[in-house]
Records
---
Amino acid sequence: MKNLIITLLSLLVFTIASKAQVLEPVEWETSVEKISDTEYDLISIATIDSGWHLYSQNVPDGGPIPTTFVYKVNEAYELSGKTSEEEGHTVDDPVFDMVIKFFEDKAEFRQRIKVLNQELSLVEGEVEFMVCDDEKCLPPTYIDLQFNLKKNDESQGGLSLSPFDSPDDTSQILEPVKWESSVEKTSDTDYILVSKASIDKNWHLYSQIPPKDAGPIPTTFEYDLGENVELVGKTSEGKGKTVEDKVFGIEVKYFEDIAEFRQKIKVSNAEDVKTVKAEVGFMACDDKQCLTPTFIDLDYDLTKAVKVADKGTEEEEGETRGLWSIFLVAFLSGFVALLTPCVFPMIPMTVSFFIKQSQSKAKGIRNAIIYGLSIIVIYVLLGTIITAIFGADALNALATNVWFNLIFFALLVVFAISFLGAFEIVLPNSWANKADRQADRGGLIGIFFMALALAIVSFSCTGPIVGTILVEAASKGGIAPVIGMLGFSSAIALPFALFAAFPGWLNSLPKSGGWLNTVKVVLGFLELALAFKFLSQADLVLQLHLLEREVFIAIWIAIFGALSLYLLGKIKLPHDSPLEHISVGRLMLGLLTLSFTIYMIPGLWGAPLNLISAFPPPLDYSESPYGVGNSRGGGSSASHSGLPDGGHLLAPHDILAFNDYDKGLAYAKQVGKPVMIDFTGWACVNCRKMEQNVWVKPKVLSTLKNDVVLISLYVDEQIKFPEGEAPDSKLRPGKKLRNTGQKWSEMQTIKYKTNTQPYYVLMDHNEANLIKPVGYTPDADEYYDWLTNGIKNFEN
């Protein structure tokens, strides 16, 4: 159990600490060796980055996740024995306190198979694995494997499964997602509209859940309902995969292979309703490129509905892991609440009361357990009431709302100021007095009201923690507030039951003192720092630029700097006890906080601050994308003043750019320069890679600034056309374009016969290509040659 807890906590800490940095220290390759006419060895080779290690297939119980191979069932072959592995290293692991085998640098795994059908050409499998270095462990990872039996080792050359291969630059219209619709009938009036997406291998389709920060375009459904049809709830979706996007620094959920979406409807007159129509908008990406947002019409034929029993959705099952994480965080928060001056002194007092007032030890233990269960019931009722008042879906919707973020900010600031000692948040004394009077009645009811009295009296300490848990749980929606209160109250109640069962343990408890107030003050500083994350979120959505990255980091430096001074005894607050010296533990915590404060200072000069990158605004949301005081290089094509109509300086490179095609072309004719069209997208991963890794090269940057006119057309731009001015779609006759992004997307598709980004076109003033357009080109020299050759053709 100890090792399991260590594993869970390490994964939790790593997930929080490195929220914007996805590490992939293992790359997998596959090959095949032919042993005989019917026998083959499937070889999986893991290349492991320096400093990391991959665990064996055989790991003792309670240890890390073992490497596991699963091969897709196929009647054309059968497995011969188990997957073998190399010798590796066997060490006595100090973290898990057990002997564990792992691999460094490279590991090879072999699985012998016997072919039963000579037509077999491909075997598919999956490997699950966990990797660690000396500081952290990554969560379990799943990788698909393919073994081509028709190629020998040399010709196959190892099929690389790294997601960072160079993309195929072939220009073509790609359709990696195919949609099918069907209908299920659960009663005479209730139906389920089923939308099934078949996704090509290596591609993924994004979830309906929009990311909190700027990210990929979510999948959306718009239903065309008649008078006799109404939607029941929201469109549900399957589990999918939730990963940390390394470019946007946020969690995104997507689907691979198959995705199913289900929408319940109620039909008041089934005889008059034969079909329901809908439109699905979606965005598909692979590891090399993203396609433009696409819209597809769907028809659901109710006359062909299949009769089924109503059942829950996969989405409901997929929420279980999120609820467990809420429970764990709330449980740990409950333990923190135990260390506050409002709760900790109550433990020995209350347990002693039950032991002394009971006729026997067994009865005392029973009463203490009932007391603990009463605490759980009280807090769970609180979570239930919150969920019932606001509704499960309303909580989730509010959590991403600007005004709700502002309310969260104000709430946490009030909590923080209370913890710092300015005032105490207390419930009316009459409530506590009434609870005390009811507690005097004795019996089960009396014990329950004793627990209620504890909750009321300790509210000044537990209230802010409870509020923070409810704020976090609200962002998850559903029954998360109930689960959060269950975890919190379980931690509060546990000591009362344990110390009642083992009263001798009371002697080992540290005595109450000033250290309890220190815990409370530290929590106050942490609450204050967290509050600014919610304010930053609201500022980002509104694009007010009031709390840009430098300001946010400066505020955190001030908060954690003050906390460091407090822990080192240089600052005293109202409720602090006289301090002659500080303890070693407090000194170590003070030094740790001071180190963290110093770590954040370079963030003012543009350092990425990977440890906290999930909290401050992104690097480009700042007073200067280069960092405070940093100089710009590469020359300048224009100053910030006197920009041409429609032009702006593209941060952080200060390239003069246009987002309007006609205005950009007119300016190019005016200054006599060729045009470079940049078909891009806000959610385009490789577009950002090109801008961050290729465009910054001095010779490329100078060319983009001085020798061409850049027109950046965002195919996922969501700016809508003015009322009545939306142009007709050329690809979907009878439909209107939704936004400017669709306009540029159709332009790219029709004129250049491709729908992938990034896509770069060099053209003259007659809109004729100067050189063959290119896509993602990570080699800066190759990209520079393409630029210069196109410019030479313009000059000639």
---
Amino acid sequence: MTKTHRSKAAFTVAVASGLVLGGVAAPAALAAPSADAVIAEVYGGGGNSGATLTNDFVELANHGAAATSVDGFSVQYLPGSAGPTSTWQVTPLTGSVAPGGRYLVAEGKGSGGTVALPAPDATGAIAMSATAGTIALVSGTTALTCKTAADCAADTRVKDLVGFGAATVREGSPTAAPSNTTSVARAASLADTDDNAADFTVGDPSPTNTKGETTGGGNPEPGTPAKIHEIQGTTRISPFKDKKVSDVTGVVTATRTFGSSRGFWLTDPNPDNDPRTSEGLFVFTGSTSPAVAVGDAVTATGTVREFYPDAPATSNYQSLTELSSAQWTVDSHGNALPAPTVLNPDTVPTTYAPSPGGNIEPLTLEPAKYALDFWESHESEVVSVTDARVVGPSNSFNELYVTSKPDQHESVRGGSVYLGYDQLNSGVMKVSSLIPFAQRPFPKLNVGDVLTGTTSGPVEYSNFGGYTLFASVLGTEKDNGLQAETTRKQRTGELAVATYNVENLAPGDAQAKYDRLGEAIVTHLATPDIVNLEEIQDNTGATDDGTVAADQTLQKFTDAIVAKGGPRYEWRSIDPVNDQDGGQPGGNIRVAFLFNPARVSFVDRPGGTSTSAVGVVREHGKTHLTASPGRVDPANEAWTSSRKPLAGEFVFKGRTVFVIANHFNSKGGDQPTHGRFQPPTRSSEVQRAKQATVLRGFVDSLLASDRSANIVVAGDLNDYPFSPAVQTLTAGGALKDLIASVPEAERYSYVFEGQSQVLDHILASTAPRGVDYDVVHINAEFADQASDHDPQVIRFRPGAGNPLQDGLYDLLDYLEQVFGH
């Protein structure tokens, strides 16, 4: 189970482009990317209903090293449908664009809106669509005639081109659709990949001219005077939502000068006496760095928005109250900053959120009672924490998680263990950095490490990870020396069975990943006799070309094990039906068995296919599978778009052991724990409950045939020990979830959003004797991971159902422990 994210703009692109790409039959032809001037932003909603700006605009930028002349150039517009009678409309340009600078082209003016554009560098009268169309930057002022993406790419006059919304003419795939109140803007890096969907995101319009001016140039309506605490209000939604406010005063406490969501945070140094109202506010300036400094006293005007990372009407997330389309004046410099809220172990409430059974946005905040209310009542204010222990390792997005409650469900290795739906660790918070990377690279820290000294900055809600401290002051890294664990070797009479999710393993992965996985099997897991693998991809990985075989993936893996000094494992698996088992599109992930033939035998029985169901029979007094390997009821609707369990029959020292490898459906689609709906709906549980019922039925059929059957059910069940699915598997004691046999501080195999939790399980029937179980922590707590999951291993002596034989077996095992092998 892999979680990804990022900035609010990045999230918008990921969602929106996913919707658009589904309708694109083939990529459009591409022209060479521009080396200097590019189209940076397009807005067609000016003057429309709900708009703040009065005019449409096109903004250019220069990502070259020298000024670029646009004399004799033009920007041209084609309607989105581009029918036979459509024509390109032309606005001539003059002047130049400085390196790293902007150039603003004003277009058609509507009857609505209240804020004028900054003084434009060129002016046209094109009435652009707010939702779909194409803008081209053209050498020359003669109207283009091309009506298809391929024809426009072949026209050498086209320097850059952007198709937005459902545009017929575009580079690659069109951008997501903007609206009357949103524009499409290129990332701050100005990268030009010739794929509009990848290069542009939807967000608030931020017109900027060559002088760097971003404020309106007319006499806009002044708006309602308001203090920050009045804007924030006593609920999650501002009482001034979508209204213009003025005379908003505060001191700049931090700035965000990189990325696509730039702006600054204001805090009013004269707070009210209401603990429910935040005194902080984020002023959003889009892709333009704000011309303010920390300590500036500012008076601002703008429109109050509630920003959601996706569609507000259907979002599962909370919003960020911000000031957009802002104008401001700096009244003075070098002012003292308001004191931060210091986070001590008892500052944040233990109870996580109110749980009315619905949307908590209208509820009056109770910051002394609920953690989520506490954070919301300090939204955009500066908070600080001292000697913060890391509970979620640094990730590729330069984030980590710390806790302000070091004693709250502390794991044995320094994390925060998640022990129940009502026991979320409320002290956990995400930390990102406002410090430019060139000034201080983001630290690479593991769970248990510490940011010593003070870490402080404004707090803002993020759809990925909840409330986030954006650090303008970042503590000093202290490495507490976390080491990867190593389990013991199984004894001669013990069978060792492990489970390991290897995170979308494909032949195209770097050899270094295979080497680390091989090292894990040989050294850290001490070469188990049987290994259940999850997320083995097909031979072409995520390329969706109809390939389903995974022999190359498994061969490369087993070769890596041998190269690390391990045995030559054999494997068994069943290829899935193409694109029917979920996971990364095209990857065809499946479960598989590795086994060491020098220690354990696999009983091969023909008949196991991707669509046929394995059964249980009893012949000559002995229970066996009808096919080995075989899939458990693969046609059952419980396994729709999900991996099917794989049952295998093994023999160890003359005793039969049934192993069932699993990878239940993911948690995708669940409402977030920190979202606006409380308690969150865990919709994915419905399918896992069905899967558990089917799997339990198969286990019961084995036990009905042989009540002393040695059964191991293992894999990534994508659910917790306290979940309905796992409770179904363990009901009545037929299977024991072995994670319950270790202390609470050790119950985790995965770390998500700073919560150490259990997704991977090994369950065993009552027949195995001398059971020894271990979660081997080698990945989830580390910034450098070979997989995002930790493996687990069970060692046991298979029971024979005969007390005399079992007693003799116990004696032999005891003698081995005393005298060695």
---
Amino acid sequence: MPGDIDYVRLLSELSSATFNVLRPAQLAALQRYAADHSSKPDLAVELPTGAGKSLIALLICEAWRREGKTVAVLTGNKTLARQMEHEGQQLGVPVVRFEGAGDTIPLPDRRRYRRAQAIAVMNYWVMFNQNPVVDSADLLVIDDAHLAEGALDSLYSVEIDRHAQPVLFQALVRDLAQAFPDYATFQDALANTPSRTGTELLSFLDQSAFVDRFRAIVDSAAELQTDIDLRYRWARVRERLHEVNIYCSTRSLWLRPYVYPLQDNPRYADPEQRIYLSATIGDPSDLARRLGTKPIVPLPIEAGQAAETYGRRLLVLNPDDAADVPVRLANIIAAALRIQPKSVWLCASKQDAEEYRTAIASWLGAMNLPAGPTWLLSSLGDEIEQFKAASAGHLFVGGRFDGMDFSTDQCRLVILATQPRAINPQEEFAAEYLRDAGFMMQRLNQRIVQALGRCNRAADDFGVYILADRRFGAHFGQESRRRGLPANVQAEIDLAENDTLLEDNALVARATAFLKRDFQDFDRDLAQAASALPQIANGLGRDDSIAEVAGWLELHSRQDYCSAEESFRQRQEACSTLGMRELGAFAQWCGAKAAFLEGRRGDATAAVRSLDILQHAIARGGVSSWFNRLRSSLLRHQQQAPAARTVNPDDFRVVMIQSFDDRLEHVGIGPRFEKWRARLTAGLTSRSHDQYAEALQTFGTLLGFSTTRPSYGAATDCRWRGVFGNQREVVTWEAKIEHQDTSAVDAHAVGQAHNQASRAWTELNSQGYAVRGVIVTHLEQLDPAAAASIGFIKVVRQDAVAALWTRVNELLGVFASTWSAEVPEARLAAAESVSAYLPATGWLIRALDATTIFADGEALLREWPR
């Protein structure tokens, strides 16, 4: 491998007309590499967007090639591969680009690569696939390293999607719901309604019990014959059904190991060195976790050079508007599109991108703006070049935030439509249930920084970035959540926060002036924001993934379950040292899974030990509702659960505490939280029908129910559907709260309540739901016709609901006074502070059943301890 190379001389020898001088950051990186990092097996090079990482990579590649070493550069898509090839040609180094299926790659080009006569450039999938044709390299450069995860998804996972494979998905969910009734996700999927529990991870005990049935259903699926990608993926995963994790949501079932076994892939293992390039490496330990690599060493670069950025960015925050396109932001977007009719919409998922594409097409027409063309970015990325070449149009992107470069007038407007905290089911699970997983917050910040570089490729570039999801405001409002963001980005965020105080017209004028290259006010205000920043400490890198990566490699790829169990034990101990309670509990869960799989081989001691470890994991992670739900799985496995479904009185308390936690995660504990509480108080005492129905829906969500406002012809005003362990209940609410001359509930309202309760009963009674119909009103009596037809419908006083909210609000305040977003122990303390004051599972059904017709505040609060 190359030793002490003079890269300035090498660049001079190449006589490139385009690249003839090294920037300070490039020179420093190359000198450091040559001096003491050319022999590091896994090396990360992190420099800001536009800093010239490609030139660094190509010079290192050429130095290796000149010593007779084979060199391959991997990129995120064909467009980036062509771009890297073009830069190589401009530099004057020999480059061949591999594209398409292996048998279509010209043999002469492959020979040039094998003989170190040229540097090979290709996208990840050409190198990492089921039957790779391209030989391993001596030096492997992985550009935009985080994007490589997508190639590994296709190689080591299979996703069964509600929309792509509807028959197969429905068959699996139906049988899973029957086998495991305590998983709310399966019930929600059957009802095709949003899930209160989000994405769940199937217990390995339930997974093992269902493996044979799972395999039989998929093997016999007609979609396996028509969907080639599904067939290939299933063939790779089929024999690892005990080892993979199964993530379950109302949208899909995703089968994958928690960490991919990349280290056992020859195309990864063979190279002498692997270099990972990105503007946002962040914590190299987390990159190793995401890709399954060996420990990655970062190339040291001085902070001033690493923080260097290019061009100007005007960030615009959503103050607190839940609309798809809030009016305030819509005015700015429209003004920007009238200057240049192009935009890029970055979304957390493909589903989000598809929905925004549909919504924005309609909105553009309503605003008399050019409607298209529009593109939805595919994995191959061909749409990027089409968008760049167009004079107008809109590109919608799901689940990725780098690997797209738009310079000069190719695009000036980027909208971050949804907050990218989680971009796949495994991340959704971690974000929901492993709240002390600091790496998830780091990934969010990485993606934000990646997104903010799409239109800033040179010193004279500039762009407007709309952070449309209102959660960005809550996120940036907590200093602890800004860790890992460069100082210049923090200053831009501070300026965006200041701009939320501007009137709409003033903000539109600011954005318009910026896009017309009037930067005087912007430069002055940004300089002031930057000067006010405190000294920023990075604070990354505490959490080491070595044992975690090793454990999953041993469990999934090598099936050395005993070694895996030991690795997970080390991981759990490290988490305990760092105070990461839920991550430590998850490490114990992984260790229990490893011991269980060893037990399946006949080791009775391991089988017993597995259940003991699992019990400790449940106890450790009990503040997270997922760990609490594992108790049912454990009882089922031990065959201790009676045939009748028993109701655990604590199940409601666990779900409601999780709901409290979710709310504070969303709004924080500052002014936004107080504003939200005041808005809900106003809504639940309002006599405006729509305002009240919206508040009732929000209140039900806080109480742990999945709440909807169905759109039937005579729609109920709100439906609460709850799954609390084995207790399933539905309450339909018909609101009669407007000011009217009448002083009594009429028969029409009763009829509506009966209709909605009957619909709910028809849809959900067969799934074991208890259904109750309710009218909520300020009125104190029924008229004769209503009284004659009231039947099983109950009438709840509006002031009774308000009294219930007052009690819940008190407990929420107690919870918030102890809660912390960053300290797991504080979350546990917050849960303990309110748990004893929450009612037992089934309290609402019992309160309604205990009343004759009218329920007051005393009836609703009867089981709420004081």
---
Amino acid sequence: MTQLEQQLALTPAQLGPQLDSALVSDILQQPAVPAAFIGQDRARTALEFAIGMDMPGYNLYVMGEPALGRFTLVQEILQLAASEKATPEEWCYLNNFDDERVPITLRLLPGEGRVLVKKLESLIDDLLDTFPAAFDNPGYQRKKKAIHRAFDERYEQAIEQVEKKALEKQVVLYEENGAVSFSPIIDGKPLDDQEFTKLSEEQRQYFYDLVSELETILNEQLLELPQWKRELSENLRALRKDTIEQAIKPMLKKLEHHYNAELGVLKYLREMRPELVKAVMELLPDESEGEKGEEPVSREIFIEEFVPNVLVHHETMSGAPIIFEPNPSYGNLFGRVEYSSAGGSLFTNYRMIRPGALHKANGGYLILDADRLLTQPAVWDALKLALKAGEVVIDTLSDHAVTNSTIITPRAIPLSVKVVLLGSRDLYYLVQDFDDEFNELFRVLADFEHYLPYLPQTLSDMAAQIQLQLREMGLQSLSSCGLQQLLQFSFRQAEHQRKLSARFADVLELVREACFFARQQQAEQLTSEHVRQALAGKKYRTGRISEAFLEDIQEGHILIDTDGLAVGKINGLTVLEIGDTAFGTPARISATVFAGSSGVVDIEREVELGKAIHSKGVLLLTGYLGAKYARDFPLTLSANIAMEQSYGHIDGDSASLAEVCALISAITEIPIRQSLAVTGSINQYGQVQAIGGVNEKIEGYFRLCQSRGLTGEQGVIIPASNQLNLVLDQDVVTAVAAGQFHIYTVKTVDQALELLTGEVAGERNNRGQYPKKSLNGRALLRLAEIAELVNGGSEE
């Protein structure tokens, strides 16, 4: 190994975080006191501030990606705040007896909704027990008979006068089944029809005229009979109504006495009294015999007419409600009115109004998923209107305006709720840009970090949560090596040697999977071996595509060299993300240079496979070449750069260091070591900048070299600023420790070129020139030759 390689190579200790074994052991010895949440002090402060600001507009947007524990922290703080708040009042809808299409609202104390419903249902049961039995009362029956007797007396008097006149004229009057008929008398005996036909024509005509005269007299006497019957019905109805009122009065008086301090309930009871009397008169018979079968139907009708529809029941002293609505559709958020079908038409009433999440959370807190909320049509605008107006309205017209249905418009209910939106970072800034009202309604932002600080308290909280999860999975304890392996996984998720990943849910998922292997081995303690088995199992389950790439390289379908030298060719490193799987794989980058003036051509961009950031990285090459070499002559050349055997879209500038090295190799015709792979981006001054996915890239190239056989010459060149992001697999660290694989860090393009070519890059002297035999000197000379050739040719 050369002096430069020794200087730039990383030691095994620099390839990952260094855990303090004593600290880990001490943490496991401490009593496990699981914290509800780990870290995120900034977000916790914002949550506590928003909840403490009990004013309109101080709703909260919780910003962060899923699995950061947003929901857990929000619930923890809200539960504490909700337990200290008063239980909100209950709201119910009542029948509007003046206009049933507009149900009215009633506010009740917590827990009073159930009581009122039970008391009114009990009132209905008492009514059904009282009627029609109350009509069997002797007093009622006596009055009823007196009314019928008065009618009968009138009727009998009229019939008696007609009968008297008929007898004077030798005609008898018959009354049968309410029908009146006449029959002549001869020799003191009424004639039947057969005997009447035997009379002479003159006698028959005489009696015909006589009967006609008597019928006229009868009609005159009974002219007021309809009036008498109306009076009979009115008197009976008045008697029935008076009886019902007298029976209901003490029942309602008892209720009114119980609710003497509730003006809203008293008003409803007084409005209900005449309607209740009317319903009893219409629905219940005045005879008790044979009517028992109708009672259930009558009871349901009374309940549908008079019992309140309590939207949300609260238990006394239960604190403020906390509602999470996972599917914030319009109906789920603002409530809905249900409909029933009868005879081809839809009908509804106040009892079929169903509450939404806003009704349930009224007086408390409502948690919503912002991404789902904004995909629902019209819901966002309706929510903003409800928060600004301070009331929730159930809109029924838009859904049923064109149907053959009864439409009701429930009155609005006052709204006092703190809304918590859980959403992504991109969505927050997008809504801010497009909605001017957003900042007015959601004044507080809780920003969740992607990382947790590597502190003893953080480790202690994580260990306690892990041990709690273990007990739920049936294991007794966690070993020190097991905790270290789980922490190593968290460092890897964070891609940082000094920070842990805030996605603690991923750690718990790994714990559950490791417990599967521990139970298979009948172990009572979770160790690092179980964690490694879980990681290997997941890698195997999701590794088909990465293995296919490796096989293609091994079989020669994808051309990658891991030894030897080549001009204008270099191994770049890429990361492929497919679903929830990300893996690294090498890719050959080639460059060709020839006389011309077309400049550096990015083939990927020309065929529209290179996206914006990748194209930017290639364009920087021209700036670097010009600033580095073309100070005294115009930069004139034609060069093509391509990522070979790449047939999909490419993004990112992490290949720009490899591209510039391949390009300078092509310019100078100095070969590059194919045993080294390169990743890193550059700026126009040749400084190497950090890139992402460094661990996957290194491991992808390592697996290829390992499959071909490690020679001790292979390795990877990465930006020096990425050394802090290294959390490599143990097999890579072992190979580096054995000298079979190397990881170099560079800060400049010159350092990378010296590693790749074995040549001295050379530094510019005071006259702006490089040593002639240096790599930079040869590049400067070749570019000057091409510029003279091209520019001279054009003059000729």
